[in-house]
Amino acid sequence: MNRREFLLSSAAFGAMMVAAPSVFAQDKLTILGSVPSLGFPFFVHMLNEIKAEAATQGVNLTESDGQNSATKQTADIEAALVQKVNAIVISPLDVNALAPAIEEAVKAGVPVVTIDRRVDGVEGILAHVGADNVKGGEAEANAVVAAFPNGAKLFHLQGQPGAGPAIDRNKGVHNVLDPLKDKYQIVFEQTANFARAEALSVTEAGLAANGKPDAIVCANDDMALGAMEACAARNFTDVKIYGFDALPEALVAVRDGKLAGTVEQFPGEQSRTAVRIAVAFAKDKTEPKEKLVLLTPIVIGKDNLDKAERIGETK
């Protein structure tokens, strides 16, 4: 072999060695991880946990921020199907609006695992992993009853209409309080769409029309923190406010006595479990032991802050 032949052979070998990783990378499974909106800290944490578990499982992840738009999240699913992803892990913004796109994925043979928000109208979804939000709502309402054994005047800030957790948490709250309505009166009840700024303005309107309540029950922590701001502005610091999601900021507020409690639904464990189920099926058609995996939420107060999944993130 002359020098020119040797150099050409070496260059070809070097090119092959450089190309090899990308060839092997293409052999890796790819999953879509989709959440309703990264504008909500809860879903930022959820997507981070999906990302971490995907890395642990050795699969590629295509990330999707639904941007609080069913149209955007639907388009992301459709794009993922064109790209031939091997599985989809999704928390749908609206369980009804996202059903057609999820059904399309199922018909295409792509395994779908839903997190947090269950889509009941589509046959063939591989599994759902979430919290039992009805039980979570019941736990939140029971915490109010325990705090006010002689009865209370209540505000109730509901979540986004059409979102499964909002529907279920609302049901849980009413399961407990409706039979006790002679003692526990919900004098103001309105959606604030899971948003802090909206909860601030909605609570201000409620306070103006109804005066100070004993407690405010909120379907998530962002709304609880908005309600807390509205009450603080009027110096109603003794109103007991309950949130849902156990965000780090809410845990700090519970620790400092500004919130009475928040419901922990273990979103990190939900996310990791969903990815494990999706990857196992995509790899070798391993069916999940359970099609419906529901974690039981608990109320976090000052006395059990150590039970919160994200307590390590508090300052």
From TrEMBL:
Q: Which GO terms describe its cellular component?
A: cell envelope
Question: A GO molecular function for this record?
Answer: carbohydrate binding
Q: Give the range the annotation lists for the signal sequence.
A: 1-25
Question: What are the Periplasmic binding protein domain coordinates in residue numbering?
Answer: 34-285
Q: Which Pfam families match?
A: Peripla_BP_4
Which UniProt keywords are given for this protein, alphabetically ordered? Signal
- Where does this chain mainly localize? other
Gene3D superfamilies recorded: 3.40.50.2300
Task: Write out the annotated subcellular location.
Answer: Cell envelope
Indicate the family of this protein. Answer: Belongs to the bacterial solute-binding protein 2 family.
Please give the name of this protein.
Substrate-binding domain-containing protein
Organism per entry: Mesorhizobium ciceri
